[in-house]
Amino acid sequence: MKKYIIPSIRLTLVLIVLLCIIYPISIALAGRFSKGNGAGEKITKNGKTIGYALLGQSFTKPAYFWGRPSAVNYNAAGSAGSNKGPSNPDYLKEVQSRIDTLLKYNPGLKKSEIPADMVTASGSGLDPNISEQGATIQIARVAKTRHISEQKVKELVALNTIKPLMGLFGPSSVNVLKLNLALDNL
Description:
The chain has 186 residues and is mainly α. It has six helices and five strands, in the order αββαβαααββα. Helix content is 43%, strand content 9%.
């Protein structure tokens, strides 16, 4: 019995030190060297914090690009998905309502052109980015509402597009808050 208990206690102590002390300290130190010193990248305007680059926000006015829908109404304290599957009738009604809203506010847009990220919530409900296609389908509406050329808005979308890591990993995306701030600065 002593043959098994002593090694088990040693292993437990080693893992406690490794996983409860060394690992959390190393993660905290890594955060200190990131943007925002581990507190997230704050977006400021006129000296006031208006949001964080990694948290989605609700934009509903036609003059702004709309972000990905949120199952938790963009509440960072309650980050979660809806947990409704694609066969759930309530979920299908919700998605259809989002499609109808996009079609209503973006005349000329076809249902087949709407990317999935514009009508489905992310797992966290706080996704700050939309796909490049999600931004592209909104260009005409934003340009018309703001009375600026579509070309100028396209250029702004291109400037705010985050390319895949090393050109290979992940899709191109656009941070909605940063894009909308760039629009306001025009």
